[in-house]
Prior knowledge:
Elements: E1 5-11, H1 19-29, E2 33-38, H2 41-53, E3 58-62, H3 68-81, E4 87-94, H4 109-135, E5 149-156, H5 167-187, E6 192-199, H6 206-211, H7 227-239, E7 248-251
Parallel strand pairs: 1-2, 1-4, 2-3, 4-5, 5-6, 6-7
Bound molecules: 2-acetamido-2-deoxy-beta-D-glucopyranose (NAG) (2 copies).
Protein name: NAD(P)-binding protein
Pfam families: adh_short (PF00106)
Amino acid sequence: MPSFKPLLVVAGVGKGGGTGAATARAFAKEGYSIALIARGADSLKSLEDELRASGVEATAFPVTSYEHVSLRSAFQAIRNRYPAQQYSLRAALYNASHWVRKPFLEITPEDIQAITETSINGGFAFAKEVISEYKNNEIDNTDGLGKRGVLIFTGATASVRGNTTTSAFAAGKFALRALSQSLAKEFGKDNIHVSHAIVDGAIVTPQGREQFNNPPIYDSQDQSLTPEGISAAYVYLAKQPRSAWTWELDLRPAHEKW
Ligand SMILES: *[C@@H]1O[C@H](CO)[C@@H](O)[C@H](O)[C@H]1NC(C)=O
Ligand SMILES: *[C@@H]1O[C@H](CO)[C@@H](O)[C@H](O)[C@H]1NC(C)=O
């Protein structure tokens, strides 16, 4: 057993019913303490309360934006709350996302700015904080693991394919994928594991049901992804030993047409 308490940081928790929150719960079950970063302070607080009620050391770090200064101060607060003598950041998920689906000529400068903030500025800033932290970690050799930490990015079909209404969304997701691949190559030799997951299909969340007017696919796990299914894959990535690492994973429900 390692001598430190492993810590997971998740950015992008939304309303607490999606992939970010499910990942926090799944890593908590694996014995991780949890740092939650998101823009919605209220939902962050309720997830923090829920995790604490089940005995998990969880702390919410609300941010006003995903710009570098905000993420920097969130990480400073994380280091104060979870000091390095006792805790060790070992897993990180960048799940923040901004959804735009519009024909190209309707896309506004504000849409582009929001995409740039979440998928580019935020992705770079988050990765910089996490990797700087990982560089100081000892290699964890428990069960031949051989890594200093795992950094996972949530992608989408739009990470690899543009389409009629996804010019803005896909541009951001392509950027995030390019970042994750570059980081995987640059930091693999430091035993830092960087991964990108292409989530291909609708994810069942309360917000998704609302946004898309509750289509029947949400009632079938053959046709839609559950946040728990995705988070199980993220735990699997974290547990991969250094001799067989996945950079990119794709996840889709059994009946997805692709
Ligand atoms: C987390 O990732 C999923 C899948 O891409 C996305 O639907 C969701 O909006 C993301 N959460 C946040 C808070 O951005
Ligand atoms: C591309 O967009 C069209 C029109 O919105 C849609 O019918 C199709 O399913 C999309 N293709 C993919 C691969 O998402």
